[in-house]
UniProtKB/TrEMBL annotation:
This is General stress protein. Pfam families: KGG, YjzC. Signal peptide: none annotated. Residues 1-131 are annotated as: Disordered. The lineage of its organism: Bacteria, Bacillati, Bacillota, Bacilli, Bacillales. Residues 87-100 have a biased composition (Low complexity). Residues 1-32, 44-84, 101-114 have a biased composition (Basic and acidic residues). InterPro entries: Stress-induced_KGG_rpt (IPR019626), Stress/Virulence-Domain (IPR052590), YjzC (IPR025549).
Amino acid sequence: MAKNNDKKRMSVEEAGRKGGEKTAETHDKEFYQEIGQKGGEATSEEHGKEFYQDIGEKGGEIVSQERGKEFYEEIGQKGGERRASQRSRSTTQSGNSTRRSGSERFKTGEKAPETAEYEFDGFVHDPSASVRQREQTIKLEENDQFPPDPSRNVAAYWVKAS
């Protein structure tokens, strides 16, 4: 028997949307984080540092043209105020961060100055976000890079454990 060709064919966009919805029903947040990380790693292997510098520069030029000098003044002012507020407290309790006075703070991507255990000390771009207990301590060898937060894969601060 011949197939019925009278039915309307599904567009590529509709097929993609339906497939995405079906996948979202069967996969959790970690699945999407994992494939996102794999994609990011593959992209960074394909393109060198110059590629990212170039697209960052182009993006910055476009934002500058669209938003103007005042935009940068405003976000610089807000960032400076926020940073000053964070530094003014010798011990910070902001949901996920407890910064001990005198502790040197290290950021994702920096190298560990010595082999030691380091404690999670907050997110770089979201200091009010909560953190789970399992993310709080890591062991690094000297010159190992400080990693991003394990569950969110975003930049984090670390301090040497006491």
